[in-house]
């Protein structure tokens, strides 16, 4: 099975976590931590800053690795490096997603997360 390697941002502000709903593709309608594929010659942190700039038009500071999720979808294996981040400059503006919300820790379970993200959500709840 092919492996997809992505970096995802758990962006925290005022004790809330940023969640975005995928607007297209096979996982349309599910919520995720924004991010994307790590390209050759990129570190996960560089990829993450690039993706957030592309998708959300803001600069983030990557604070630390929260954990790495390994998850089998029917179509591929996903390795997802999840980083705690905060907005360094600008305002998060959805350019590719269909919705966003700032979620309190206690409400994380009420979100319709992608399968892989449910694992990361367990870590976020313990922060
Ligand atoms: N970005 C992101 N992708 C996730 C998460 N959880 C999860 O299962 N995925 C899956 C969905 C996608 O199939 C894959 C990431 O692809 P992507 O579409 O975000 O990456 P990308 O922007 O670099 O891709 P592309 O449009 O260039 O193909 O990982 C998540 O929290 N964030």
Describe the structure.
One of its GO terms (biological process) is DNA repair. With 127 residues, the protein is an alpha+beta fold. It has a single domain, classed as Nucleoside Triphosphate Pyrophosphohydrolase (Alpha-Beta Complex). It contains two helices and seven strands. It has helices at residues 44-56, 115-125; strands at 3-13, 16-21, 31-32, 35-37, 59-72, 77-89, 99-104. The termini are far apart. The structure holds 8-OXO-2'-deoxyguanosine-5'-triphosphate (8DG). The site of 8-OXO-2'-deoxyguanosine-5'-triphosphate (8DG) has 14 residues, from strand 1, strand 4, strand 6 and helix 2.
Q: What is the fold's blueprint, element by element?
A:
Blueprint lengths: L2 E11 L2 E6 L9 E2 L2 E3 L6 H13 L2 E14 L4 E13 L9 E6 L10 H11 L2
Parallel strand pairs: 1-6
Antiparallel strand pairs: 1-2, 1-4, 2-3, 2-7, 5-6
Bound molecules: 8-OXO-2'-deoxyguanosine-5'-triphosphate.
**N- to C-terminal distance:** 33 Å
Using the 3D structure, state the CATH architecture. Answer: Alpha-Beta Complex
Supply the CATH class. Answer: Alpha Beta
What is the total domain count? 1
- Give me the strand/helix succession: EEEEHEEEH
CATH fold type:
Nucleoside Triphosphate Pyrophosphohydrolase
EC number: 3.6.1.55
Organism: Dialister succinatiphilus YIT 11850
Keywords: DNA damage, DNA repair, DNA replication, Hydrolase, Magnesium, Metal-binding, Mutator protein
Family: Belongs to the Nudix hydrolase family.
């Amino acid at each position: 099975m092919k492996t997809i390697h992505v970096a995802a941002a758990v962006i925290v502000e005022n004790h809330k976590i940023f969640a975005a709903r995928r607007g297209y593709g096979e996982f349309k309608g599910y919520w995720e931590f924004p991010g994307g594929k790590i390209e050759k010659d990129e570190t996960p942190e560089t990829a993450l800053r690039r993706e957030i700039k592309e998708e959300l038009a803001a600069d983030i500071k990557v604070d630390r690795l929260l954990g790495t999720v390994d998850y089998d979808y029917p179509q591929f294996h996903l390795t997802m490096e999840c980083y705690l981040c905060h907005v360094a400059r600008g305002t998060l503006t959805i350019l590719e997603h269909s919705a966003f919300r700032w979620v309190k820790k206690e409400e994380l379970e009420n979100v319709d997360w992608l399968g892989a993200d449910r694992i990361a959500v367990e870590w976020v709840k313990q922060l």
